[in-house]
Specification:
By secondary structure, this protein is mostly helical. It is 52% helix and 11% strand. It has a 3-stranded antiparallel beta sheet with strand order 1-3-2, with no helix packed on it. The termini are far apart. The relative contact order is 0.24.
Length: 135
């Protein structure tokens, strides 16, 4: 990720607590849980079932968001909050990226009507564009 991506984000008033919350939120989104519910493994048993596939364009969209989110998380680990302007832009960018990431899963699940499960989540295989339900 380039620094200009963060610089282009508008500044907002934030605190260390808000940055920590944003980073934790984004990290929890590695696997998408239907309706934003957290993923919980029961008895450490997981089942993985193919429930769909997306187009290469749709896969590219979520892959870019995934990589951006990971880059922002890494930047958050090294950014000093003393640089208030950059810090505020990072928090804003993390929130926007997390919202877009969640929005992609919501749109695709509605479009393709993927099967879901209580305490389950979806994941994508970036090589095959396949979507799996993990429960």
């Amino acid at each position: 990720m380039e620094g200009k991506d963060i610089i282009n984000a508008a500044a907002s008033n934030t605190t260390n607590k808000e940055l920590a919350f944003a980073a934790a939120f984004i990290q929890r989104q590695t696997l998408h849980s239907p309706k934003g519910k957290p993923n919980k493994q029961i008895n450490n048993l997981t089942m993985k079932k193919k429930v769909g596939q997306v187009t290469p364009e749709e896969k590219n969209e979520i892959q870019q968001l995934f990589e951006r989110r990971n880059g922002l998380n890494e930047l958050a680990k090294i950014l000093n909050a003393d640089n208030t302007e950059l810090y505020e832009k990072l928090v804003k960018d993390m929130g926007e990226t997390g919202t877009k990431f969640q929005g992609w899963w919501d749109r695709m699940s509605q479009k393709y009507q993927w099967e879901s499960a209580q305490n389950g989540n979806w994941e994508i295989n970036f090589e095959t564009n396949e979507i799996y339900l993990v429960s």
